UniProtKB/TrEMBL annotation:
Catalytic activity reported: L-glutamine + H2O = L-glutamate + NH4(+); hydrogencarbonate + L-glutamine + 2 ATP + H2O = carbamoyl phosphate + L-glutamate + 2 ADP + phosphate + 2 H(+)
Positions of the Carbamoyl-phosphate synthase small subunit N-terminal domain: 1-131
Gene: carA
Official protein name in the record: Carbamoyl phosphate synthase small chain
SUPFAM superfamilies to which the protein is assigned, alphabetical: Carbamoyl phosphate synthetase, small subunit N-terminal domain (SSF52021), Class I glutamine amidotransferase-like (SSF52317)
Record keywords, A-Z: Amino-acid biosynthesis, Arginine biosynthesis, ATP-binding, Glutamine amidotransferase, Ligase, Nucleotide-binding, Pyrimidine biosynthesis
Listed pathway(s): Pyrimidine metabolism; UMP biosynthesis via de novo pathway; (S)-dihydroorotate from bicarbonate: step 1/3; Amino-acid biosynthesis; L-arginine biosynthesis; carbamoyl phosphate from bicarbonate: step 1/1
Organism annotation: Aeribacillus pallidus
Length: 363
């Protein structure tokens, strides 16, 4: 089944369709990870996006039951050079094609993903469509230029009701902006009593749960499209320890008076080097974001930069100078991927313990 990928700048790629045969549009991005396609496809941060995998062969170890980052995937589409039709792995239950069909996600293979990636790096992130090979690409491209993509991705992916993952350790309220299950797994492994709440939960409602700390999760889209969370954080800072990841990092910065900006083509993959400015140590990290905190905007805030990306110098970590709050742009819970940053969860536990020793901030 021949299909085509049309970009808003007029570029066209002809390939073979797999997965769902419906037509879709979305923001075309690329990820550089050699493994982890199952985690990528099920990461809510890719909501509304068509993901290009730069590694040439995807699907060779199949899909298993254990490596999902959420129960329902929110990715719009998948682009690969080659989709493996006969996976080989002892955990594999079905193929990538079966997974896409089951979740009504279109895919296209057999195209030059190297050329596509270069186009995105040159033009920046582009809107695109996976559609029938018979469709007029000029008309599709014109429609893409006129189409405004949804801005309520966080509302789409966030939990609708609070729920608890019980433990006998520190109570952590997890604000779900599009949480990967890996975050909850790391908290569970540290015996935390985790309560997951929707993205628009107020500071008053959070404090009513008597948390030892609050974790702000990853999520999709532009952080400025989540004003409820920014307002909540302004009321919450200084009243409980806070740890932000990815979108949570950006929202914490906005709440403290900093600004965010859209990156030309974003950071997506499992091989991004980040430098800790305090120790000088370099970590390999997993990342997935299209926006970053403006480093110039931090100077007039109570925040300080703790980590920077070595590839482009963008902000990768922040710490509040006065209150117990810190955040990172990358993913310390990533799996599979580098585990260099995993101790950040221990740092969060230590921050909650030190805060409790100094006295209850809510008193």
């Amino acid at each position: 089944m021949k299909r085509q990928l049309v970009l808003e700048n007029g570029d066209v790629f002809i390939g073979d369709g797999f997965g769902s045969d419906r037509d879709i549009i979305g923001e075309v991005v690329f990820t550089t990870g050699m493994t982890g396609y199952q985690e990528t496809l099920s990461d809510p941060s890719y909501c509304g996006q068509i993901v290009t995998f730069t590694y040439p062969l995807i699907g060779n170890y199949g899909i298993n039951r254990d490596d999902f980052e959420t129960i329902r995937p929110f990715v719009n589409g998948m682009i690969v050079k080659e989709a493996c039709e006969a996976p080989s792995n002892w955990r594999s239950l079905y193929s990538i094609n079966d997974f896409l069909i089951e979740n009504d996600i279109p895919g296209i293979s057999g195209i030059d993903t190297r050329r596509l990636t270069r186009i995105i790096r040159n033009y920046g992130t582009l809107k695109g469509a996976i559609c029938s090979a018979e469709a007029d690409p000029k008309q599709v491209a014109e429609k893409l230029r006129e189409t405004e993509l949804p801005r309520n991705q966080v509302e789409i992916v966030s939990t609708k009701r609070p729920y608890q993952s019980p433990g006998r350790g520190k109570r952590v309220v997890v604000v779900d902006f599009g949480m990967k299950h890996g975050i909850l797994r790391e908290l569970n492994s540290r015996n935390c009593d985790s309560i997951v709440v929707p993205y628009d939960t107020s500071a008053e409602e959070i404090l009513r749960l008597k948390p030892d700390g609050v974790l702000l999760t990853n999520g999709p889209g532009d952080p400025q499209n989540v004003p409820e969370a920014i307002e909540m954080l302004r009321d919450l800072i200084g009243k409980t320890p806070i740890f932000g990841i990815c979108l949570g990092h950006q929202l914490l910065a906005l709440a403290c008076g900093a600004k965010t900006e859209k990156l030309k083509f974003g950071h997506r993959g499992s091989n991004h080097p980040v430098k800790d400015l305090k120790t000088g140590k370099v970590y390999m990290t997993s990342q997935n974001h299209g926006y970053a905190v403006s480093i110039e905007s931090i100077r007039n805030t109570e925040l300080e930069v703790t980590h920077v990306a070595l590839n482009d110098g963008t902000v990768e970590g922040l710490r509040h100078r006065v209150h117990p709050a810190f955040a990172v742009q990358y993913h310390p819970e990533a799996s599979p991927g580098p585990e260099d940053a995993n101790p950040l969860f221990n740092q969060f536990i230590e921050l909650m313990e030190k805060t409790a020793q100094r006295g209850n901030l809510n008193a």
